[in-house]
């Protein structure tokens, strides 16, 4: 019998240890795949359409859609940068009447959806509105042919409305950048002969440029994603093109192809914003450097500064709230409408479920990847924030079409096996809507949770683990109590964003299923502002709660 030899491993060769991922890592990766799947689905649908209408789109409507979108982006970029940066500079560097109040009030337009601002502006400036009515009364004009007035429903008015709603993004980041600068830099500049404008142009603006660029990029992403404002002003953009091609043309592939163009534009904005900050980092020279000391303006200059800061606040907040309050008080019966109560309940259910699902998934993802210590966290965590950059209409295309196919497949399978037809469980209910909200605002929740996780000392969970706590026990006993404030803030912000979201809600809601945002849109589109006003005011009140929290945490 031949002697069997056993192979002895060479001790000089390195051993390769296979490390299987645990359930936390697997769950985190699964969540990341679900968040990124709708965007991947959009690209797949665009490359494999049932009917390829891309040449037709290129030859007819796509240049107009893209041109209008770029014009809107250019106008909004200039206005938001000028208004947000100028207001931040005045309220940070100077003291004048009302400065302390305006420092917070200039954030309030963030609570107003842009489409509500559009309805209010048109109602205020249209032929039958108070402005033109007062002009005819004072000047003795009889008809519109007797005088000239700017076209109310136009692309330029859309730029003004969007800028009034979005300048707080720039204002918030620019104000923080100005506050963090060293007062010594300004003292040296004054000693070298710089006046007020020179201080802003040569010192303040260059140091705050990365923050301003980030704020403008956020405003432009919201501009590309907007549907309610541009549809009301009859401006054909890429987002309205998705609606028109999908709903009116019944061509999902063409809608996906336009959605790809939107994603390219948005990801281009993200890339430009990150490149603008890559080589522009500024630091205080030392911990002992003095903060910026605000200068008191003379009386006349102080009132001029107050008036300049009041203009964006009046257009972005006072006008929409005032017009909606007037219409809401004019018809009190609209407040007790059963349809309003149903829309309010639907909003609470979908927004609340999406907020809990989104923050819970973000907590699991961040904790799982950070705890495992994989290098994949550096790649996965930034990728999952891309959903916030994707407009709601784009996500709707990427979610509804694959989900509808899955829904029909499971319904047919259950019917074949049991003889019972369950119906469309996913797309026939609010499940698809909640999923779209979760993907759209996952980046918001993930950012808040990740920042809170980073502030916890590593020694605390290590101590819990040494005392016999597992990963789940350490999360419940250590992390969650310390992160409670950040988690609650993330829940509120995601809920508010869900309440305001319009494009995804219009495309993914079940039949005859209204939320507050869709009720406002439908009634305002029919010129029934008195019935739309209560829902609009509730949406604005919910938004104000988040803005108040934001103002408190950024003092």
Would you write up a description of this structure?
- The chain has 555 residues and is mainly α.
- 74% of the residues lie in helices and 1% in strands.
- It has 24 helices and two strands.
- It has a two-stranded parallel ribbon with strand order 1-2.
- It is globular, with a radius of gyration of 27 Å.
- The model is unreliable at 6-18 (pLDDT under 50).
Strand order of the largest sheet: 1-2
Uncertain regions: pLDDT < 50 for 5+ in a row? 6-18
Helix-strand string:
HHHEHHHHHHHHHEHHHHHHHHHHHH
Put simply, the count of helices is: 24
β-strand percent reads under 5%
Report the major sheet.
2 strands, parallel
- Helix fraction bin: over 70%
Query: What is the C-alpha radius of gyration, as a whole number of Å?
Result: 27 Å
Query: Judging from the principal axes of the Cα atoms, what is the shape?
Result: globular
Strand-pairing-aware structural class: mainly alpha
N-to-C span? 87 Å
Mean pLDDT: 83
Structure summary, number of beta strands: 2
In terms of topology, how is this protein built?
Layout: H1 23-47, H2 54-59, H3 62-93, E1 94-95, H4 99-105, H5 114-125, H6 130-139, H7 155-180, H8 183-191, H9 196-225, H10 228-232, H11 238-248, H12 252-278, E2 295-296, H13 299-330, H14 338-372, H15 376-384, H16 386-389, H17 392-418, H18 431-440, H19 442-454, H20 459-466, H21 471-500, H22 503-508, H23 516-525, H24 529-553
Parallel strand pairs: 1-2
């Amino acid at each position: 019998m031949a002697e069997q030899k056993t192979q002895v491993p060479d001790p000089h060769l390195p051993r390769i240890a296979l490390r299987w991922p645990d359930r936390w890592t697997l769950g985190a990766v699964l969540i990341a795949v679900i968040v990124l799947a709708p965007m991947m689905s959009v690209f797949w649908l665009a490359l494999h359409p049932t009917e390829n209408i891309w040449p037709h789109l290129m030859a007819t409507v796509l240049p107009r859609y893209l041109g209008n979108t770029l014009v809107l982006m250019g106008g909004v970029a200039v206005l938001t940068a000028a208004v947000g940066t100028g207001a931040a500079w005045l309220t940070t560097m100077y003291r004048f009447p009302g400065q302390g109040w305006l420092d917070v009030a200039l954030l309030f337009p963030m609570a107003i959806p842009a489409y509500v601002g559009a309805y209010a502006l048109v109602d205020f400036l249209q032929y039958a509105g108070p402005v033109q009515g007062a002009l005819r009364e004072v000047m003795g004009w009889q008809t519109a042919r007797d005088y000239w007035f700017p076209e109310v429903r136009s692309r330029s008015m859309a730029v003004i409305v969007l800028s009034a709603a979005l300048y707080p993004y720039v204002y918030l980041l620019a104000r923080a950048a100005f506050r963090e600068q060293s007062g010594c830099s300004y003292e040296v500049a004054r000693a070298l002969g710089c006046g007020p404008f020179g201080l802003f142009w040569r010192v303040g603006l260059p140091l705050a440029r990365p923050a301003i660029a980030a704020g403008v990029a956020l405003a432009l992403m919201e501009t590309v994603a907007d549907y309610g404002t541009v549809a009301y002003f009859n401006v054909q953009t890429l987002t309205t093109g998705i609606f028109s091609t999908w709903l009116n043309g019944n061509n999902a592939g063409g809608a996906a192809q336009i959605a790809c163009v939107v994603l390219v534009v948005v990801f281009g904005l993200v890339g430009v914003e990150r490149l603008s900050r890559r080589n522009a980092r500024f630091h205080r020279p030392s911990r002992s450097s003095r903060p910026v000391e605000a200068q008191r303006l003379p009386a006349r200059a102080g009132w001029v500064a107050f008036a300049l800061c009041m203009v964006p606040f009046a257009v972005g907040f006072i006008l929409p709230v005032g017009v909606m309050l007037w219409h809401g008080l004019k018809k009190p019966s609209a407040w007790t409408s059963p349809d309003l109560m149903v829309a309010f309940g639907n909003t609470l259910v979908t927004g609340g479920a999406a907020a809990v699902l989104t923050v819970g998934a973000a907590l699991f993802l961040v904790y799982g990847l950070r705890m495992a210590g994989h290098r994949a966290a550096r790649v996965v965590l930034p990728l999952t924030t891309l959903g916030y950059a994707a407009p709601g209409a784009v996500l709707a295309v990427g979610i509804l079409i694959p989900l509808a196919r899955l829904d029909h497949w499971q319904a047919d399978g259950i019917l074949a096996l049991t003889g019972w037809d369950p119906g469309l469980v996913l797309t026939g209910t609010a499940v698809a809507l909640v999923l779209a909200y979760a993907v759209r605002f996952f980046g918001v929740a993930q950012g808040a949770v990740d920042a809170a996780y980073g502030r916890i000392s590593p020694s605390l969970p290590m101590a819990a683990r040494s005392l016999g706590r597992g990963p789940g026990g350490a999360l419940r006993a250590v992390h969650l109590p310390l992160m409670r404030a950040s988690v609650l803030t993330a829940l509120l912000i995601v809920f508010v964003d869900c309440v305001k979201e319009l494009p995804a809600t219009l495309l993914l809601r079940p039949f005859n299923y209204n939320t507050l945002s869709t009720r406002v849109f439908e009634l305002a589109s029919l010129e029934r502002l008195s019935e739309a006003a209560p829902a609009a005011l509730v949406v604005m009140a919910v938004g104000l709660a988040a803005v108040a929290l934001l103002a408190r945490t950024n003092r």
